[in-house]
Amino acid sequence: MYEDVSLDPRVVDGEGRDPAGGYERPPRREFKARGSFVERCEGCNLPTLNCLCAFRVEAQSRARVWLLTHPLEHHKPTNTGRLIGDVLSATRVFTWYRTAPDADLLALLDDPRYAPFVIFPDDQPDYVERVVGMSAVERAKLQARIPVFIIIDGTWRQARRIFRKSPYLDRLPVLPLRTQRQTRYRLRKPASQAHLCTAEVAIELLRQAGDSDAAEVLDDYFDAFNDSYASSRTYHKIEQLTPAMRRLLSRQRRDTTSTAE
Ligand SMILES: [Zn+2]
């Protein structure tokens, strides 16, 4: 979940509606302002000046992440939800449409192999009986079920709307993320340092659920993304690799060596 960036002129709120289908559709004016003339890498969608592809590393985790993504987020190159799928290949991404829930998601919610949790703050009284802690994730593992973190990927305002207007989420336990982490996201201006971006939410959940290796890789990959993107905005080519970038490259070498053996 991102901070609400409605004051940012690059972001247009997506309340537009297709009169024919009643589906929500992205507005026509999409993110023309900044970065639309920049040459982008086809692999990572970052400006080619500091491409991220070389730092992509896969990791394993017991818990999975399913993203429920607002349609407008898909178009934003600054979206961090996609970083999760680069690191954890079992990640699923579902686009949220109010009137047309994703059929695959509905089927997966009924699949007994999974124990899905919707990640959301517990700051409203009307769903207090659904709120659980990390111990519920541990219990799911003991029952040989795969814990799934359903993270709503959008601004805070969009996330609240998705949480409220998706009846299939109403029966799921609500897992609020409790963390002292302050955001390190540099590509959008946060309303508060406590508002984490989507990748950071996943990192902290994985860490708390005991998937520390996956959390570390994703954290490094997120840092590399942040630094690469921020540098490209000022037309600065990164010559000196950051510590996170170096760790990712050394992991890649390890992976390659172990596969060759
Ligand atoms: Zn790339």
Query: Going across the major beta sheet, what is the strand order?
Result: 2-1-4-3-5
Hetero groups in this structure are: zinc ion
Shape, per Cα inertia axes: globular
Main sheet? 5 strands, parallel
SSE string, helices as H and strands as E: EHEHEHEHEHHH
**Low-confidence parts:** 3-24, 28-32
Helix/strand structural class: alpha/beta
Alpha carbon gap, first and last residue: 41 Å
Query: Number of domains in the coordinates?
Result: 1
Overall average residue pLDDT? 87
Work out the strand percent: 5-15%
Question: How helix-rich are the residues, as a percent range?
Answer: 25-40%
Number of beta strands: 5
Please work out how many helical segments DSSP would assign: 7
The rounded Rg comes to 19 Å
Please provide a written account of the structure.
It is built from seven helices and five strands, in the order E-H-E-H-E-H-E-H-E-H-H-H. It has helices spanning 81-87, 103-109, 134-142, 156-164, 198-208, 212-233, 243-260, and strands at 64-69, 92-95, 114-119, 146-153, 174-175. Strands 2-1-4-3-5 form a five-stranded parallel β-sheet, sandwiched between helices. With 261 residues, it is α/β, with parallel strands linked by helices. The N and C termini lie far apart (41 Å). Helix 1 (81-87) links the parallel strand 1 and strand 2. It has one domain.
What are the defining features of this structure?
261 residues, single chain, disordered N terminus, 7 helices, binds zinc ion, globular, 5-stranded parallel beta sheet, 32% helix, alpha/beta, 5 strands
